[in-house]
Structure formats: structure tokens, C-alpha cells
Automatic annotation (TrEMBL):
It holds the Pfam family Nitroreductase. Gene3D superfamilies: NADH Oxidase (3.40.109.10). Residues 30-201 form the Nitroreductase domain. SUPFAM superfamilies: FMN-dependent nitroreductase-like. It comes from the Bacteria. CDD domains: McbC_SagB-like_oxidoreductase (cd02142). This is SagB/ThcOx family dehydrogenase. It comes from Candidatus Amulumruptor caecigallinarius. Residues 1-42 are annotated as: Disordered. The lineage of its organism: Bacteria, Pseudomonadati, Bacteroidota, Bacteroidia, Bacteroidales.
Length: 203
């Protein structure tokens, strides 16, 4: 399917995020750890998914459009994509929905490449891929890339802590097929997949 033939029905409207609950921050920090064994039979329900995406990169001050994750100069150059067995989606924080980018199961690209892959990723019901667009910074390319990577790391830690606070399992990862993902996610040349978090329930 081409991007042009994707219709509104292919997008997924999420329930409004619930902005309270979970364990206290100090307890979430205390229990945060990486998990690499996921139960493939346990999906993440839509409400928890909405809460997770809002925590990662959602709008927490609607009057200004500012986000749960800070970005340098409020550039908001980070996007979060969700990959599950049905397709690849872009999280649109404004409409609180998932926009279908590509159909099919692309979790293998998150797992890795032919050279190095971590198969446990295919057991996680979803993976969140954190993409940065370094063209949003009007500074030298090295600085722009470094700044974008810092901003991506903050989104990743929001995900790590949300998971810890809400009984979900995750691991922050840099391993993935960045070239393959760039194609499937239809990224611009200045966008790059920087980190990913498989998410689900521990086995
Ligand atoms: C930037 C970054 C990249 C990472 N990449 C991977 C990875 O590709 N695969 C993996 O299994 N773990 C990856 N990890 C997870 C680390 O191995 C893990 O955080 C570390 O061993 C400490 O364990 P803990 O998270 O349980 O404290 C990464 C962590 C970070 C912060």
C-alpha cells in the first residue's frame, strides 16, 4: 500500500490519556530495569498505550503545545513511531492518534540486521521507535545531531520510567536496522531512528 492510498479509517484514535496513577517516581526509579523476555500472548491495551505514548512524547500543556519531554529550544524534533504485527504508525500527539504509515509486521527491522539481531524483540507486542529530525536545528551538523540524540534519550527515559511505574516491561535499545526502518517509516533524509523500546509484559 502506498502512503497516498492510506485512508482515515486506517488510523487508530486512542482514548484520552489518563494523566495520573502509576507508582510514585522514586519507586519507579527504584524498580526500573531492562527486560529482554516478553510474553507474546499479552497485548498492551489501548488505554495504557495512550498513557504510554503521552508520557513518551505527548502534549502536557495544550495552551502552548509543550510536551511531556523537553527538547532543546522547544524544537520538538522527535517523533515516536509504533510498530506492531499489523503495521507501522506515527504517534500524532495533537490528535492523540496513530497514523498508519505502512502495513505489515516490521518488528524484525527493530530486532536488528542480518549481521546482528535480538530475536526477543519479535515477542514484544509493540516497539516504539524514537526518530529525530536534526534539520530542525540551525547549527553545525555535528551539534545538530548531538542535540537531537540528547532529546531522543529523554523520550526513551520517559518510556523506561512509565513502564516501570505501570507494570510494563521494556529495554532501551540502539540495535535496529536503521536503513530498513527509514524506508518503511518513509523518513526524510534528515530524520533518523535513534533509539527504540520494545514494550510488553515480562514473561
Ligand atoms: C543508549 C543505550 C543503548 C542500548 N542498546 C541496547 C541494545 O541495542 N540491546 C540491548 O539489549 N540493550 C541495550 N541497552 C540496554 C543496556 O544494555 C542496559 O540498560 C544496561 O545493561 C543496564 O541494565 P539496566 O537497564 O537493567 O539497568 C541500551 C541502553 C542504552 C542506554
Amino acid at each position: 500500500m502506498s502512503a497516498n492510498s492510506i485512508s482515515a479509517q486506517d488510523n487508530i484514535q486512542l482514548p484520552s490519556p489518563i494523566r495520573e496513577g502509576g507508582m510514585p517516581l522514586s519507586e519507579a526509579l527504584s524498580s526500573r530495569h531492562s527486560t529482554r523476555e516478553f510474553d507474546p500472548s499479552k497485548p498492551v491495551d489501548k488505554q495504557l498505550l495512550s498513557n504510554l505514548l503521552w508520557s513518551a512524547n505527548g502534549i502536557n500543556r495544550p495552551s502552548s503545545g509543550h510536551r511531556t519531554n523537553p527538547t532543546a529550544l522547544n524544537s520538538q524534533e522527535i517523533d515516536v513511531y509504533l510498530i506492531d504485527k499489523s503495521g507501522a504508525y506515527l504517534y500524532d500527539a495533537t490528535s492523540n492518534s496513530l497514523l498508519l504509515i505502512a502495513e505489515g509486521d516490521h518488528r524484525g527491522l527493530v530486532a536488528g540486521t542480518a549481521d546482528f539481531s535480538q530475536d526477543f524483540v519479535n515477542d514484544a507486542p509493540i516497539s516504539l521507535v524514537i526518530v529525530g529530525d536534526y534539520s530542525k536545528f540551525d547549527r553545525d551538523p555535528d551539534q545538530a545531531m548531538l542535540t537531537t540524540m540528547c532529546d531522543a534519550g529523554i523520550v526513551c527515559q520517559n518510556i523506561n520510567l512509565f513502564c516501570s511505574a505501570n507494570g510494563l516491561a521494556t529495554v532501551p535499545r540502539m540495535t535496529m536496522d536503521t536503513a530498513g526502518l527509514a524506508k518503511v517509516l518513509k523518513l526524510k533524509p534528515t530524520q533518523r531512528a535513534i533509539l527504540n523500546n520494545p514494550v510488553g509484559y515480562a514473561r
